[in-house]
């Protein structure tokens, strides 16, 4: 894929960028390595001052960077502004809490004495240069939720962003520069995916984090494993959304619409498989389908737009193939199922609900990355849990119920990195985020996220 800004609302290429050559990549690697040697000795108060300054600048730039994200990947502009604001919140959250989260730990005194020590502590120290391979769907948030904890821990970052959001990628580099972070602390590498292996194998790069597709995760994990380097992976998701008899059906259906079409349906944690108990299936279906039909599809720069275009032409083709396969095998489109006739240009797709989905259809197992929902009727909670777990992914899950026994059963048995009751999955700086199975491993955000790229050092003092 060329490194270029292509407006998904029109298909027009607005600006192209030359990838960095080997010499320029080497210069950035050298600068990152040198920056870590200096930055790792900074104290938390200095890092917090810089991070808060970056947050202030991003807050001032909200309208500008929102327009940039909308232009590059089609995010509705009101959602783009909210994404930038969320990044500001995360920066300030880590600036305020990093020192406490990484404070020295005191092992139990009995264990210290039994080890023969007079005293012992566990200290968290930064690892070094971390490579971040990031996706286009949340082009600011995905990066900041890595960068804020990594920089506050004393690491430095190299960003290989998706090739269709180069202006957002360059903005991030400039943001941290303007905030006063030392030269080389955070750099954007405008390179293609073919350059990742060489960068990751470089001995100056000590770890990597990737958010993206399962094939990309496999590639980075295998290279890092060969080099014995730490990785954190956040990959795909096909999150279940369970609606049980005691649920508030009005709220469950209204929230389901937002949960499915957030970010034009292009979110790993968007609810995708709607698993509804037979007792409330008809009532939920009618409300859910009506809500999907009422969405406004159009120009993402328009304040009244609910669903904009998909980010890439290939992304729309992939989604169409999944839907067409399901329809050919007997699925029913309760709404949508095709490109909207009103948009002749750009990569739009109509909000869609598919019923009568069977395991023989690709969409039953594969992630639908766009505004397409699959709807299932189940007889009881056992069937709901079994169907929810019948997926190679395990990122998050949603359950609507007011029955405490349902809650305990779902927390125990749903195979996912999160279980959200009576609401939709969302990430927050204070809550760990990540998945199981083919959705990846490791955690971002909260204390778990800031410690992922730290060396938990045992410090032992003899008598």
UniProtKB/TrEMBL annotation:
<comment type="similarity">
    <text>Belongs to the aldehyde dehydrogenase family.</text>
</comment>
<dbReference type="Pfam" id="PF00171">
    <property type="entry name" value="Aldedh"/>
</dbReference>
<dbReference type="InterPro" id="IPR016163">
    <property type="entry name" value="Ald_DH_C"/>
</dbReference>
<feature type="domain" description="Aldehyde dehydrogenase">
    <location>
        <begin position="3"/>
        <end position="459"/>
    </location>
</feature>
<protein>
    <submittedName>
        <fullName>NADP-dependent succinic semialdehyde dehydrogenase</fullName>
    </submittedName>
</protein>
<dbReference type="InterPro" id="IPR047110">
    <property type="entry name" value="GABD/Sad-like"/>
</dbReference>
<keyword id="KW-0560">Oxidoreductase</keyword>
<dbReference type="InterPro" id="IPR016162">
    <property type="entry name" value="Ald_DH_N"/>
</dbReference>
<dbReference type="InterPro" id="IPR015590">
    <property type="entry name" value="Aldehyde_DH_dom"/>
</dbReference>
<keyword id="KW-0521">NADP</keyword>
<dbReference type="InterPro" id="IPR016160">
    <property type="entry name" value="Ald_DH_CS_CYS"/>
</dbReference>
<dbReference type="InterPro" id="IPR016161">
    <property type="entry name" value="Ald_DH/histidinol_DH"/>
</dbReference>
<dbReference type="InterPro" id="IPR044148">
    <property type="entry name" value="ALDH_GabD1-like"/>
</dbReference>
């Amino acid at each position: 894929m060329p490194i270029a800004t292509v407006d998904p609302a029109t298909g027009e290429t607005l600006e192209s960028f030359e990838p960095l050559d080997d010499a320029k990549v080497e210069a950035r690697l050298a600068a990152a390595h040198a920056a870590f040697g200096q930055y790792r000795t900074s104290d938390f108060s200095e890092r917090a001052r810089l991070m808060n300054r970056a947050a202030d600048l991003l807050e001032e730039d909200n309208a500008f960077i929102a327009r940039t994200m909308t232009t590059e990947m089609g995010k509705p502009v009101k959602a783009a502004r909210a994404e930038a604001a969320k990044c500001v919140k995360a920066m300030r959250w880590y600036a305020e809490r990093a020192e406490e989260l990484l404070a020295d730990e005191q092992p139990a005194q009995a264990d210290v004495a039994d080890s023969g020590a007079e005293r012992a502590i566990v200290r968290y120290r930064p690892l070094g240069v971390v490579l971040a391979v990031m996706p286009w769907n949340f082009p600011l948030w995905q990066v900041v939720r890595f960068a804020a904890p990594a920089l506050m821990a004393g690491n430095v970052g190299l960003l290989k962003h998706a090739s269709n959001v180069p202006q957002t990628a360059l903005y991030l580099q400039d943001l941290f520069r303007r905030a006063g972070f030392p030269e080389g602390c955070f750099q954007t590498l405008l390179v293609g995916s073919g350059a990742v292996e060489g960068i990751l194998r470089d001995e100056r790069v000590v770890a990597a984090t990737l958010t993206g597709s399962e094939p990309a995760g496999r590639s980075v994990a295998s290279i890092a494993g060969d080099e014995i380097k730490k990785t954190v992976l956040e990959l795909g998701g096909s999150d279940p959304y369970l609606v049980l008899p005691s649920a508030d059906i009005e709220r469950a259906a209204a929230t389901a619409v937002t949960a499915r079409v957030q970010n034009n349906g292009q979110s790993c944690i968007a609810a995708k498989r709607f698993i509804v108990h037979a007792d409330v299936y008809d009532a939920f279906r009618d409300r859910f389908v009506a809500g999907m039909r009422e969405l406004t599809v159009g120009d993402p720069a328009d304040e009244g737009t609910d669903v904009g275009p998909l980010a890439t032409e290939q992304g729309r083709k992939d989604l169409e193939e999944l839907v067409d396969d399901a329809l050919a095998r007997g699925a029913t489109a309760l709404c949508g199922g095709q490109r909207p006739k009103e948009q002749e240009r750009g990569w739009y797709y109509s909000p869609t609900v598919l019923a009568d989905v069977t395991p023989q259809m690709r969409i039953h197992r594969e992630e639908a990355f766009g505004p397409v929902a699959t709807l299932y009727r189940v007889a009881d909670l056992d069937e709901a849990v079994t169907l929810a777990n019948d997926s190679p992914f395990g990122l998050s899950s949603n359950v609507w119920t007011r029955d405490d026994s349902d809650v305990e059963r779902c927390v125990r048995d749903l195979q996912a990195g999160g279980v959200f009751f009576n609401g939709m999955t969302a990430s927050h700086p204070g809550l760990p985020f990540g998945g199981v199975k083919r959705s990846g491993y490791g955690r971002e955000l909260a204390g778990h996220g800031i410690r992922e790229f730290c060396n938990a050092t045992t410090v032992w003092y003899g008598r």
